[in-house]
Specification:
Layout lengths: L1 H17 L12 E5 L41 H9 L20 E3 L21 H19 L1 H10 L1 E5 L2 H8 L6 H5 L2 H21 L5 E4 L8 H7 L7 H25 L4 E4 L1 H10 L14 E2 L14 E2 L16 H13 L5 E2 L3 H10 L1
Parallel strand pairs: 1-2, 1-3, 3-4, 4-5
Antiparallel strand pairs: 5-8, 6-7
């Protein structure tokens, strides 16, 4: 059976190379993912790091009930985006299964613990920092080119959807990691944010130089409202005002950056994703979205289940669908579905300058 599938794929590739079969016959649209634990599909499983989600109860609601390396009870945001694209989930770039026809689906380069800056997440040691993720993307294109040729590879990458989720760790696991951290002594918060934005600009332009033309760029979520921060910085259960300064200052500058880059590129390449508002909708009114709480994590321990890691020894809620947060930092699959719903149909307040449904509809007409 495997041999016959291999022969069929070889035939398809020969037809593509001959120009008698369109490349769309092989893949509707490739999808590439870069970033941190919010979008990591399991790359860190292959690394010697503590930033992993490869043990129970992670993955408890997957068909196999096994941990996959996603920081979720089941599916994360990239998985659900893939559903909307009508594609199978992207494989982690480090997975041995990412080979042959699987390369045409795309790849997930994300790695839990990383940030915009190279010194972010230093305590996790072996993680794939963003520059290495971009290096792997170059390497991927080389592998793909040897499979379908340079011209087809360029077309596939140009037409692909890209998601990049960075920034949260630069605050949680860097600036605010410890009192009087090195970065907080070096920069005031506004100056630190300006520095981050200047560094992020280089990353986004590198994606453009590598051929990406449809890039969703997520802003920072409501850091002051996640269970980990409520457990350590809030006495009343209210969102921490200091951490909430971060999205207030950072996100408008990120939107401005994407707008400036689009003007520079002469096209709407970069879409600013308002992750803050997407989360705050269900955090501020959980009942409206079917949640019993947005303050307590399903899996964890201590106040708000927000201390330490989610492990087999942690408290575990019996029904993940009524919790907004799976662990101290990451949403449940149900919350992720609400977020991706806004990716698809959200107004300009959520997706600027356009939502994903508009992007897909425009592409369908061309």
């Amino acid at each position: 059976m495997a041999e016959s599938r291999g022969l069929l794929f070889a035939l398809l590739l020969s037809l593509v190379a001959a120009g008698t079969l369109p490349s769309s016959s092989l893949a509707t649209r490739a999808f590439y993912v870069f970033g941190d634990s919010l979008v990591d599909n399991g790359n860190n499983n292959y690394l010697a790091t503590t930033a992993r989600a490869d043990q129970p109860p992670y993955g408890i609601d997957t068909p196999s009930h096994r941990a996959t390396g996603r920081f979720s009870n089941a599916k994360n945001v990239p998985d659900i985006v893939s559903e909307y694209l009508g594609a199978e989930p992207t494989l982690p770039y480090l997975s041995p299964q990412l080979d042959g026809e699987k390369l045409l689906v795309g790849a997930n380069f994300a790695s839990a613990g990383i940030g915009i800056l190279n010194d972010t997440g230093f305590q996790f040691v072996n993680i794939i920092r963003i520059n290495k993720q971009l290096h792997y993307f170059e390497q991927y294109q080389g592998r793909l080119s040897s499979l379908i040729g340079a011209e087809r590879t360029k077309k596939l990458v140009n037409e692909a959807l890209v998601l990049i989720t960075l920034g949260g760790n630069d605050f949680v696991n860097n600036y605010y990691l410890v009192p009087y951290s090195a970065r907080s002594r070096e920069f005031s918060l506004p100056d630190y944010i300006r520095y981050l934005i200047s560094e992020y600009k280089k990353i986004l332009m590198r994606l453009y130089d590598l051929g990406c033309r449809q890039v969703l760029v997520t802003g920072v979520g409501p850091l002051g409202c996640v269970p980990a921060i409520l457990a350590t910085r809030s006495r009343t259960g209210a969102c921490d005002p200091e951490m909430q300064r971060v999205p207030d200052l950072y996100n408008p500058q990120l939107v401005q950056l994407t707008s400036e880059l689009n003007s520079q590129c002469g096209d709407d390449v970069f879409v600013a994703v308002n992750a803050y508002k997407m989360h705050m909708d269900f955090i501020s009114d959980p009942a409206a979205y079917g949640f019993v709480t947005s303050k307590v994590a399903c899996c964890g321990q201590g106040p708000h289940n927000g201390l330490g890691l989610c492990t087999v020894l942690s408290n575990l809620c019996p029904n993940r669908d009524i919790y907004a947060f799976w662990d101290a930092y990451h949403p449940t699959e149900k919350a992720n579905r609400i977020i991706v719903g806004q990716f698809m149909t959200g107004s300009n307040e959520y997706m600027n300058p356009m939502n994903l449904s508009t992007i897909l509809a425009m592409d369908a007409r061309t």
